[in-house]
Design brief:
HAT_MetX-like; amino-acid biosynthesis; acyltransferase; 382 residues; single chain; alpha/beta
């Protein structure tokens, strides 16, 4: 039974859906005539609406960031370690909003949603989405909730990139920007990993050019391989070695190609379980959004120039074992902010967990995160 009654848990939560009928023009040149956004809230919005926090999710994340849906749930939301009473994102102080991005597969309009023009799932016809598109749609949700300025916009990995885009596109609409385990753009190696993952999906015989919904099948093998590849990049070599080493499942070698090493078993389990909860077309969209993120591109590849007009205060956090988004990438953001004489705090956390460290209850990380959040001023707070 989940620990719903724990004093630091937000308890049982219920997702909400808002339908937008105002068209949304996208970076790709297309327009979504209408769309839904699913979101959850934790805590209470204060009288002057000054205590709101926006959580932006990573590639495979969604709106369910904290709490439980039922007493039967085995696991809480994906960032429950950091959201709740007394936790870094303290719901005794903050009103927290967590949403599922457009293009997602957990209720917000995406490839597995019905296209009103055809009455069939969008599938591959769903438009390519960028971080800037997400931020625009998130700003509209803020308007619906009566939030004209966020106390902070934050996230890890792709979520941190969205937070950075927020500070650039809506400088007056957030007081703090917190980007954890993020980067100002992907390296060629990262783009390469994403391309291999996409090729695994698109070359699955059950992919059907993205129209697999109509055939009542899933590109299971391709999506499983994509997730296995992703997990290799999310964990560090040290974390892999500490967790699995070269341990054999049955203590001996069988001289075959079935699962023999524990790490093989782990990767196959992660791949198979992911297939049952995530959509392949959404995976393609999310990796493309990662590839395209590059706010400095329109400023002659000068990140400092891209950050000239930001007004928020920043917290940038990296992890020593994260080779997917290494500390050097976070320091690029810090330097660009300092070049503009912006207020920025930076923490490089020693950790062995790799890129996934931002999801873990690492004591030093939690202390740094909590200390920063505690000093965020909330107008009208007693």
């Amino acid at each position: 039974m989940p620990d719903i009654l724990s004093p630091d848990c937000v308890g049982l939560v219920t997702p909400q859906t808002h339908h937008f009928s105002t068209p949304l023009a996208l970076d790709c040149g297309r327009t979504l005539a209408e769309y839904d956004i699913v979101y959850e809230t934790y805590g209470k919005l204060n009288e002057n609406h000054s205590n709101a926090i926006l959580i932006c999710h990573a590639l495979s994340g969604d709106h369910h960031a904290a709490g439980y849906y039922s007493m039967q749930d085995k696991k809480p939301g994906w960032w429950d370690t950091c959201i709740g009473p007394g936790k870094p994102i303290d719901t005794n102080r903050f009103f927290v909003v967590s949403l599922n991005n457009l293009g997602g597969c957990k209720g917000s309009t995406g490839p597995n949603s019905i296209n009103p023009e055809t009455n069939k799932p969008y599938g591959p016809d769903f438009p390519i989405i960028t971080a800037r598109d997400w931020v625009k749609s998130q700003a509209r949700l803020g308007d619906v909730l009566g939030i004209s300025q966020w106390a902070a916009v934050l996230g890890g990995s792709l979520g941190g990139m969205q937070a950075l885009q927020w500070a650039i596109d809506y400088p007056k609409h957030l007081r703090h920007c917190i980007a954890i385990a993020a980067a100002p753009k992907l390296t060629a190696q990262n783009i390469a990993f994403n391309e291999v993952a996409r090729q695994a999906i698109m070359n699955d015989p059950d992919f059907h050019a993205g129209h697999y919904y109509q055939y009542n099948v899933i590109p299971r093998q391709g999506l499983m391989l994509a997730r296995m590849l992703g997990h290799i990049t999310y964990l560090s070599d040290v974390a892999m070695r500490q967790k699995f080493g070269r341990e054999l499942r049955e203590g001996k070698i069988h001289f075959g190609f079935d699962v023999e090493f524990q790490v093989e078993s782990y990767l196959r389990y992660q791949g198979r379980s992911f297939v049952d909860r995530f959509d392949a077309n959404t995976y393609l969209l999310m990796t493309k959004a990662l590839d395209y993120f590059d706010p400095a591109h329109e400023c002659g590849d000068n990140l400092a120039a891209a950050l000239t007009k930001v007004l928020a205060k920043f917290l940038i956090v990296s992890f020593t074992s994260d080779w997917r988004f290494s500390p050097a990438r976070s320091r690029e953001i810090v330097k660009a902010l300092l070049d503009n004489k912006k207020e920025v705090s930076y923490a490089e956390i020693k950790a062995h967990e790799g890129h996934d460290a931002f999801l873990m209850p690492i004591p030093h990380y939690i202390r740094v995160f909590q200390a920063y959040m505690q000093q965020i001023n909330i107008p009208g707070e007693k």
